[in-house]
């Protein structure tokens, strides 16, 4: 009888340890390998729409930095919180890299004096400046914007300035939903 209790107690401890280990591994994978997100809002239209379910590659940012035109998930630079606890995340496109000079003239971005060719930008959009029209990025800053630049559609670096590298959480690589648009972004 005592051996049965010891055996059951040992099995219970093993099961609890297995569950704890599985949770730790799941948390590490979600934080450092990949994450899932649901897009909210119109800031990335026509590329992404509200309700799109995306997967981000977080591991790629452990070994490298974002590239120009990458779609990234970023901790809200304005300090927004979800439920008052977690950092709110936003989805934006990187257009400025560390050391770049960015100008916004007549609705178009210029990077280091060269016009930025943007096939992904919403066709009818007009890029407006909200705070300034010239930014110089430091060695650890990125300039991020939504693809939908119409007035009031994207709150981005045009309003809050360049973002620090440590705010960028992952690169959006795949859309899982809606199913008819599933695939690489």
From TrEMBL:
GO terms for cellular component: plasma membrane. Gene3D superfamilies: Umud Fragment, subunit A. The chain crosses the membrane at residues 12-29. Belongs to the peptidase S26 family. InterPro entries: LexA/Signal_pep-like_sf, Pept_S26A_signal_pept_1, Pept_S26A_signal_pept_1_Lys-AS, Peptidase_S26. Residues 14-176 form the Peptidase S26 domain. It comes from Vagococcus acidifermentans. GO terms for biological process: signal peptide processing. It is found in: Cell membrane; Membrane. The lineage of its organism: Bacteria, Bacillati, Bacillota, Bacilli, Lactobacillales. This is Signal peptidase I. Its main location: membrane. The keyword Metal-binding does not apply.
């Amino acid at each position: 009888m005592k051996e049965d209790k010891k055996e059951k107690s040992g099995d219970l401890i093993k099961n609890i340890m297995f569950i704890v280990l599985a949770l730790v591994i799941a948390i590490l994978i979600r934080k450092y390998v990949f994450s899932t997100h649901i897009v909210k809002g119109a800031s990335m239209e026509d590329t992404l729409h509200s309700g799109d379910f995306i997967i981000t590659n977080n591991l790629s940012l452990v070994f490298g930095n974002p590239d120009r035109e990458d779609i990234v998930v970023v901790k809200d630079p304005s300090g927004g919180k979800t439920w008052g606890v977690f950092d709110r995340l936003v989805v934006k496109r990187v257009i400025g890299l560390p050391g770049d000079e960015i100008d916004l003239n007549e609705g178009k971005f210029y990077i280091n004096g060269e016009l930025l060719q943007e096939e992904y930008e919403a066709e009818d959009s007009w890029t407006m400046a909200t705070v300034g029209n010239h930014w110089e990025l430091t060695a650890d800053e990125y300039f991020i914007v939504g693809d939908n630049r119409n007035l009031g559609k994207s709150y981005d670096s045009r309003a809050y300035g360049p973002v620090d590298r440590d705010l960028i959480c992952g690169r959006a690589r795949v859309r899982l939903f809606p199913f008819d648009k599933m695939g690489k972004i």
